[in-house]
């Protein structure tokens, strides 16, 4: 995805959509493969469990941020946008996310986890079927171009900071979620997202202090 470095919360939300979309795709493909062939080793199982748990955490926090901050802010600026429909779609995903959490906990606990992996795959499929039409509505109504037209640069910066803070408060653990977010993005978009994070996080914590904790997820992430 090619995007300008100009501050734009529509671009930020689209970037989150991209990394969640990839997370869903990888989780679907790998859950099916592992259900058929099993895990090659315990490290792969651990990494996959961490990856899917991070996906659920990021997706849930993203929806909370939209419901609590983004949609209320945009209602007056964008009359005619179906915010109530979008919020209802968020609500429809909550019990499915609970199914995913229960299935991945079973995957972590069971040595022969093919049944739990099949349950996981079915739940992920339900989310994926809701996800694509959902983000299509959001991005059609709140495009990057529209964001630039409606909101000043300073306000984009303020909103981005408040959205990031809210999301961080409702997701975690940071040592898994931050690498999950960064390394499910292309290098270009990863650099943009990283530039908004404290240097301590991107230069010290992710590559050094946290690396051992998130390393098992690496086979599922982009280079």
Give an overview of the whole structure.
With 223 residues, the protein is mostly helical. It is 78% helix and 0% strand. It has helices at 9-37, 42-75, 83-109, 114-141, 144-150, 153-169, 174-182, 187-195, 199-209, 211-214. Helix 2 runs antiparallel to helix 3 (83-109). The longest helix has 34 residues, at 42-75. The radius of gyration is 18 Å and the shape is globular.
State the shape.
Answer: globular
Count of helical regions: 10
Radius of gyration: 18 Å
> Helix and strand string, N-terminal first?
HHHHHHHHHH
Helix content: over 70%
Measure the end-to-end span: 16 Å
Unreliable segments of 5+ consecutive residues? none
Mean pLDDT: 95
DSSP strand count = 0
- Secondary structure category: mainly alpha
Query: Main sheet, how many strands, which sense, barrel?
Result: none
Strand-residue proportion: under 5%
Characterize this entry briefly.
This protein is an all-alpha fold and 223 residues long. 78% of the residues lie in helices and 0% in strands.
Topology (SSEs and partners):
Blueprint: H1 9-37, H2 42-75, H3 83-109, H4 114-141, H5 144-150, H6 153-169, H7 174-182, H8 187-195, H9 199-209, H10 211-214
Helix pairs in contact: 1-2, 1-4, 1-5, 2-3, 2-6, 2-7, 3-4
Features:
223 residues, 78% helix, 0% strand
């Amino acid at each position: 995805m090619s995007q300008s470095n100009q501050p734009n919360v529509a671009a930020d939300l689209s970037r989150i959509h991209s990394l969640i979309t990839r997370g869903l795709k990888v989780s679907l493909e790998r859950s099916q493969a592992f259900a058929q062939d099993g895990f090659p080793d315990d490290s792969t199982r651990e990494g996959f469990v961490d990856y899917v748990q991070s996906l659920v955490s990021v997706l849930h926090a993203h929806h909370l941020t939209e419901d609590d901050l983004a949609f209320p802010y945009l209602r007056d600026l964008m009359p005619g946008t179906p915010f109530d429909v979008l919020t209802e779609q968020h609500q429809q995903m909550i019990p499915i996310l609970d199914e995913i959490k229960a299935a991945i906990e079973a995957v972590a606990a069971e040595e022969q986890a093919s049944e739990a992996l099949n349950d996981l795959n079915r739940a992920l499929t339900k989310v994926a079927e809701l996800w694509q039409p959902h983000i299509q509505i959001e991005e059609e109504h709140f495009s990057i171009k529209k964001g630039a037209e409606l909101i000043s640069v300073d306000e984009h910066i303020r909103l981005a900071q408040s959205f990031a803070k809210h999301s961080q408060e409702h997701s975690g653990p940071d040592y898994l979620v931050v690498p999950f977010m960064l390394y499910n993005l292309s290098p270009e978009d990863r650099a943009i997202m990283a530039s908004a994070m404290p240097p301590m996080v991107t230069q010290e914590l992710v590559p050094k202090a946290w690396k051992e904790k998130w390393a098992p997820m690496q086979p599922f992430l982009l280079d």
